[in-house]
Specification:
Layout lengths: L4 H20 L3 H10 L4 H8 L3 H9 L6 H11 L37 H21 L22 H13 L10 H7 L3 E4 L10 E3 L6 E4 L6 H17 L8 H15 L2 H4 L9 H11 L3 H10 L5 H13 L18 H9 L3 H8 L3 H10 L10
Parallel strand pairs: 1-3
Antiparallel strand pairs: 2-3
Helix pairs in contact: 1-5, 2-6, 3-4, 7-10, 9-10, 13-14, 16-17
Length: about 375
C-alpha cells in the first residue's frame, strides 16, 4: 500500500538525505529570495518554522547553515522544493555573484508608493525570470544583449533623453515612424521581457539591469496596449540611461518618460501630424497609427511646442471630466505579448517541471510565468 508506514519511513529518509546534501551546499541568497518572493518578513517566517528571527537572519547572511530538518521546515513553509536552497547552476544561487550584479536593485516608478515588502518581492521574482533565461540560453541561442548605454546624470536636461532615444533607434535600425511592436524590439536585442502579477497593484512595470541579460517585467494581462508600449519604452530608457542608485527619483522618471515619448514618437516623424488643439477624432486616429495613448499624444504636442500650455491643460481637464484619463476611447486591443521565454522553452523541448528541477523554482510559478508571458488570445484553427 502506498501509505504504509515502511514506505512513509523510506520517503522520509530520502527527504532527510536530500536536505542534508542541500545543507552542505546551502545558498544564503536563495533563502532570502524565497522568503521575499513569498512576501514574508524574517519574523513572520521564523514564527512559522519555530525559530527566532535572529536565526533566520544568520542563515541569510551566511553566518550559519540550517540543519537538514530545519531546511525541510523552511521549504515547507515557503512552498519551495528543498533543492532550491542549494548552490547550483542557477545564477541566483551563486553566492560569489553577490555585489557583481544589479539583481538587488531595480527601477520602480515611485519608491514612496511601493512598500519595501512589495518591492523586494518583485525583485526576488525577477531572479526567477533571469534564472529561466540563463538556463534556456544553455540550450537555445538567445538574442545577444546589444542595446547601447548612454549614461545621463539625474540633473541633466530632458533634451538628453530625447537624444538617447534617437541613438537607440539608429543603433537598432528602426525605420522612421511608429514602432510596430515595442516588446518584440526589446527582446530582439537581448532584453528579457515577462509579464506576471506580483501580488499587488502598487507595482507596475519595472526593470532590473542584470549585467548579462536585463529583465523588464510588464504589468498583468489587464494592461492597455498603448500604456504598456509606453511602459516598455520607459523601462528601456532606464536601462539605457540610468544607474539603479537613483531609481525612483522624479528626475530620472521624467527623463525615462521623455525617452519613451521620443522613442515612440520621434519629433521629426510626428511633428507635422500633431494638432495644436485637441481635435478628438484626429487624436483617436493618431492613437491607432502610433500605438500610444491620447494623453501621450497631447503631452508630446505640448513638449514640442505645438500646443500651448493653457490648451493642453484644458484638454487634460476635459479628459478627466469624461473619465478618459482611466479609460480612453479607441481601445487598441490586446497588449503586446513577450515571446522570448516561451519560444526558447518550446525550441529547447523543456517543460516547466524540468525547468523547476534544474533551477529549483516552484513549477507552478514557472508555469505562471510562461502562461502570462505569451499571447493569451485564443487561436482559430482554420
Amino acid at each position: 500500500m502506498s501509505d504504509s508506514p515502511s514506505l512513509r519511513n523510506a520517503a522520509a529518509a530520502v527527504q532527510q538525505q536530500d536536505a542534508a546534501a542541500v545543507s552542505a551546499l546551502f545558498s544564503a541568497r536563495r533563502l532570502r529570495l524565497a522568503r521575499e518572493s513569498a512576501g514574508l518578513t524574517q519574523t513572520a517566517l521564523a514564527g512559522q518554522v519555530e525559530l527566532t528571527s535572529a536565526a533566520i537572519s544568520q542563515f541569510e547572511k551566511g553566518e550559519a547553515r540550517p540543519a537538514a530538518q530545519t531546511l525541510l521546515r523552511l521549504a515547507d513553509a515557503l512552498g519551495f522544493p528543498v533543492q532550491f536552497f542549494a548552490t547550483g547552476t542557477a545564477a541566483s544561487s551563486m553566492e560569489f555573484l553577490r555585489g557583481q550584479d544589479e539583481g538587488e536593485r531595480g527601477f520602480f516608478r515611485s519608491l514612496r508608493s511601493i512598500s519595501v515588502t512589495d518591492r523586494r518581492r518583485a525583485l526576488a521574482l525577477s531572479h526567477l525570470v533571469h534564472d529561466l533565461a540563463d538556463r534556456l540560453a544553455r540550450t537555445v541561442r538567445l538574442p545577444a544583449t546589444d542595446f547601447p548605454r548612454h549614461p545621463v546624470p539625474p540633473d541633466a536636461a530632458l533634451a538628453a533623453a530625447e537624444d538617447c532615444a534617437a541613438r537607440v533607434r539608429a543603433a537598432w535600425n528602426l525605420p522612421p515612424g511608429p514602432v510596430p511592436d515595442v516588446v518584440a524590439a526589446l527582446e530582439r536585442h537581448g532584453i528579457v521581457c515577462a509579464r506576471y502579477h506580483v501580488g499587488t497593484h502598487t507595482v507596475d512595470a519595472f526593470s532590473v539591469p542584470f549585467p548579462d541579460r536585463p529583465v523588464v517585467i510588464l504589468g498583468d494581462d489587464k494592461a492597455k496596449r498603448d500604456r504598456e508600449r509606453f511602459s516598455a519604452a520607459h523601462e528601456l530608457g532606464h536601462l539605457v540611461m540610468h544607474d539603479p542608485e537613483h531609481a525612483g527619483t522624479k528626475m530620472i522618471e521624467a527623463q525615462a518618460h521623455r525617452f519613451a515619448a521620443a522613442f515612440l514618437m520621434p519629433s521629426g516623424d510626428i511633428h507635422a501630424e500633431l494638432p495644436s488643439a485637441p481635435a478628438w477624432n484626429q487624436l483617436v486616429a493618431l492613437k491607432h497609427r502610433w500605438g500610444v495613448s491620447m494623453g501621450a499624444l497631447l503631452m508630446r504636442a505640448r513638449t514640442l511646442d505645438i500646443m500651448q500650455e493653457s490648451t493642453y491643460q484644458q484638454a487634460v481637464r476635459y479628459m478627466s471630466m469624461r473619465g478618459w484619463r482611466v479609460n480612453e476611447p479607441g481601445d487598441l486591443g490586446a497588449a503586446e505579448a513577450p515571446r522570448l521565454l516561451c519560444l526558447a522553452a518550446e525550441h529547447a523541448g523543456i517543460t516547466a517541471t524540468a525547468l523547476s528541477y534544474e533551477t529549483g523554482w516552484p513549477a507552478r510559478w514557472i508555469d505562471d510565468i510562461l502562461d502570462a508571458s505569451s499571447d493569451q488570445r485564443p487561436q482559430l484553427q482554420l
